[in-house]
Write a structure and sequence with these properties.
37% of the residues lie in helices and 26% in strands. By secondary structure, it is an alpha/beta fold.
Length: 288
């Protein structure tokens, strides 16, 4: 067994949660798994796993090695898929990571249409917090443009511009809506974040400190609260297209928007980008 095979076995042990679980997957004995891990640790000169009779945990070196191996293992599978599918249609498993609102409200419809066109590609969708992106184990990460990025390892592709706007349910606006930005202080506001007061900034240079009637770090909660006529939301129109079409939400002060943001796709910098990744990126450029 070579070094890569031992490292793959280590990855399987962590994923299975035990030596016995990995041994069953490989149809070998736990003692053989333990021996191969010991050989790997001796070769690397570091301890990867803390093992007792009751539990197993990763060391700091083990955690770093595991994360890198997950990525390499995915690249290895991509290489196998690519080689097997030369001259054929794109195929294999494509992992896409994105923040929850982007995943469910922007990407899902696009992914469904893409899979109809590319039935040989299986897509795995991963929800992730913005500060976890780009996900090293994901083939593609979709999110708002990242302010800091390692350009030596990651490539970014801009997809579209978007901005926040003010929206509320028709029932909330039965009497009258705000006439200008400053009037927002007289209305219930649904704020993203967990601190009050919350500040909303606009592209025209104005800003206002609102006393939010609801605080949350979940965009879906804001959308559903706005639909329930609990207040005014300051969110991208891009993620509420269906609610706008169904008249569940209406725009307020449509000339008032946030500064422009950009939605980007990020993928690993490789000498050869897998066909499945190129196919999905090409589709996204058209879709957006």
């Amino acid at each position: 067994m070579n070094s890569f095979e031992r490292a793959s076995l280590f990855l399987l042990v962590v994923d299975q949660g035990s030596l016995a679980g990995a041994a069953r997957q490989k149809s070998i004995s736990p003692s053989v798994v333990s021996k191969r891990l010991a050989e790997l640790e001796q070769e690397l000169g570091v301890q990867l796993l803390r093992r007792t009779t009751r539990r197993m945990s990763l060391t700091e070196a083990g955690e770093q090695f595991y994360q890198q191996m997950r990525h390499l293992d995915g690249q290895w599978q991509s290489l196998l898929d690519e080689t097997a599918s030369l001259g054929q249609e794109p195929r294999g498993t494509l992992t896409v990571a994105a923040p929850q609102p982007v995943l469910t409200r922007v990407l899902l419809a696009a992914v469904n249409e893409f899979q109809l066109q590319n039935p040989q590609i299986e897509i795995v969708l991963q929800a992730a917090d913005y500060n976890e992106l780009p996900r090293p184990e994901a083939d593609i990460t979709i999110c708002r443009q990242l302010e800091s990025l390692d350009a030596a390892t990651t490539i970014g592709l801009p997809l579209c511009d978007y901005s926040n706007g003010l929206f509320a349910a028709p029932a909330y606006l039965e009497k009258s809506g705000p006439k200008d930005i400053q009037a927002l202080t007289d209305y219930d506001c649904l704020a993203y974040g967990l601190t009050n007061p919350n500040r909303w900034a606009f592209a025209n240079g104005e800003s206002i400190s609102i006393n939010a009637s609801l605080l949350t770090n979940n965009t879906e909660v804001i959308i559903q609260s706005a639909i329930a006529a609990q207040g005014i939301a300051y969110i991208p129109a891009m993620i509420i297209q269906q609610e706008l079409a169904d008249n569940k939400l209406q725009p307020l002060l449509p000339a008032i928007k946030s500064r422009n943001f950009q939605l980007w796709a990020y993928y690993q910098k490789l000498d050869y980008v897998p066909v499945k990744v190129r196919a999905f990126l090409d589709y996204l450029k058209i879709a957006f």
